[in-house]
Design goal:
heterodimer, A: alpha+beta, seven-stranded mixed β-sheet, two-stranded antiparallel ribbon, 9 strands, 59% helix, rod-shaped, B: mainly alpha, disordered C terminus
Chain lengths: 404, 326
Amino acid sequence: MKATNDKEMELLLGRHAQRIKTTSAAGAARANEGPHGHLDADEMNAFAENALPESARTRYVSHLADCDSCRKLAAELTMTTSAAARLTHVTNPERSFLSSLGPAITAFFSFPAIRYVVPALAVVVLVTVAFVALRHREQREFVAQNEPASTAKPADVPTAPFQGSSANRTATPLQRESGQETSAKVNPAKDAAAEKVQSADIKQNTSGYAGAANAQQPGFAPEPNAATNERDEKSRNVPAAVPAAKPEPSNSIKLADKASADEPAPAARDTLAAQKEEQFSKRNRDAGLAAPPKSGIVASEVKSKGGPRRAREQSESEGRSSGTAQARTSEVSQETRKVSGHTFYLQNRTWVDAAYTSSLKLTTLTRGSDKYRSIVNDEPGLRAIAEQLGDVVVVWNGKAYRIH
Amino acid sequence: MSKPAVLKRTPLTDNSEQVEKLTVEGAKRLLERATDSRSLDTSALSGRLRSALEKYLLKDNPRAPAESVNKFLDAVHADDLCLKVACERGDEGAWSDLVEGHGSTVRSAARSASSNEDAAEDLAQSIWAELHGLKARDDGSAAGKLAYYSGVGSLGGWLRAVVGQLAIDQHRKQARFVQTEEEPEMDRLSRSSHQSEQVFAANPGLNPEESLASERAGAHVEQALTRAIAELAAEDRLLVKLYYFDGLRLREAGAVLGVHEATASRRLSRVHTDLRQHVATILMNEHGWTRSETDRSLAEVTSHLEVDLEPLVTAPALDANSTGAS
């Protein structure tokens, strides 16, 4: 009610002022002398500068209320004065800030409308933020996300992964298996520390299979410093590794240092790794590894059979990340994606579901085909996967699909 | 602690001797305060301080306590007052200081008060002539323009006020000169009344009888409003005039009143309530309206105003154009 009254009076007064103006313009209300006569310049200035005692001020106020010309001049002078005052205030920022803070807040909340609008706005903003955040969380599952590069990944993923960027290599199954360790290192790994340890693996694996005898002995000097450094670097990547990593100056660490020192350029490492691979795969074949999909596991089992020393070393270098020091765990610095709760690894330009095993029968779906549509339409999660990844092998409701 | 305060606050008996004493002391403090006292002594200043005191404090409150007398005297612009007195005494250095220090102030004030550069130059020249005129006469105490400066406000502000008033005077003289040709104004008046008729005619849904009644009601409201405004307290009336008549913003109106925008806003809101009550009282007492009738017709008039707002706003613009043309 008060607001409407305000509006009412505002309109009425506006019209009233308009009328008075038109009549006074016609000369009717001209020379409107106030009760005390016009203000002289000194009074005017003292008023504008607010330098008057209260009682005198009141006297002039009543004249100004009734005398148009005096009022206009007084208003003009006040504007000039306050503009000048503002300028001097600028040179005095702290005071002006503090003194203006209180009134500014009061002014902010002074209008009745604003008093309610501000809290209302705040509520609206809050609700919007909450809504967006919740929706975002809902949607996130369906959006492809790159996982952090260095994650511990169980090695029992059947199809030997990590061809990745080294896809130019023709990947025979065996090569791929042997690549399980090496390709990760050959790949431009993002983490230098991880790479170092990985390259230690190369050296070690090679020595384990090919020239174990000479690789074993030479560097068996306990080097606590090197060991700690290595561990530190490692634990920065995988914090969980810290408890598992026993302070054990092993020759593998020594070798790790050596290996990384020995390899000046990635290209050189590449050829080196390729050699190692060859040897490795030969060993594997010799060991009678038959079924390619299972060979990942077998290979690591074979490795663990390589002797207690090797097992220990492996758990040192590989198993640190898992904390449980399983020989079957290998560290991955590899691009993975997560869509609709499924994790995918890139191999041969195909995203392969982590849940996929070769025992599952693959159904091939071509995008755009009727079959594809009929399956995908009922499954938004599957659709999200199909739409966001290129060629993909996905396990959905116990069935494996290859979508391309 | 409270006792001396009480003693201090005891009003002065209408004792001009005591006021004189306070004034001389104030003059002494003023000279100490001034960065350049221009080799003046207390006797040169006390007379002027005394008259300022009479004008601004003792006139309203002859028995002002010593406290407020001292407060008043200590707020006087020491350097400006010294400069002014020195000028009046024919101090050449003071004069050149005045011209140098305030020439730009006078020029900018003249420029903002005049329509063009030539008029501004003329105005500034006539100001300096008036200020100088008294120096040529060479009788320091004589009432020249500069003598009116009391030191209560700043000298620069006073000069701006002088320029402004001179501009208004000149404008008045010109206006009186031009006033003979009132015909276009009459024309305009008749046309604007014509327009308001058109507004009513263009208002559909109102038969002539109704529109006549509502017009009469509107006239009553208008009358009551005029009276209610006239009977407002001076501060409130000034606020209404500044805001509605002069079209100042709330912040500006507040500055004129020496209050913050928020205070001005609150005050305006209260004035609205007061005015409405007053208008309603007048309507009920003098026109025999009932409360509900008053509320209804106020709302009605307002709603008409809302509809008519556009013609009302555009009409003066048209007028301004026609005056500019003539």
